[in-house]
């Protein structure tokens, strides 16, 4: 299901301007849940073309444009465990991307966790993928630490 949001006036490029396109980008994010290490992802477009592969995730640095860090650059609200999150620009109501779950019999039987991400026009979709991988790592660490409510209502800031 595609969501329609207005394009931002200026491209928001964090990783690279070639990842900012003038139309919405629908991404399928597939995580192999049967792996021993957490974080093996494949990201495809609507046609099944592989755009990114992430193996053995390791998030050591946070991507920040805001060096004062007095306000967040991006805000994520929703339920991580239900793969139902909205990513906003800072403390505004401007939506840059939205996650929604995708259940298929093949994914359940194959041990894969798949969800869709709609990235708004002129937003760096590679950055959105990096943010999702980082959030997955944060969620996994919280779950290992016994914080089972971490996925119930995620509100993460970067």
From TrEMBL:
SUPFAM superfamilies: Tubby C-terminal domain-like (SSF54518). It comes from the Eukaryota. Transmembrane segments: none annotated. Gene3D superfamilies: LURP1-related. Belongs to the LOR family. This is Initiation factor 2B-related protein. It comes from Corchorus olitorius. The lineage of its organism: Eukaryota, Viridiplantae, Streptophyta, Embryophyta, Tracheophyta.
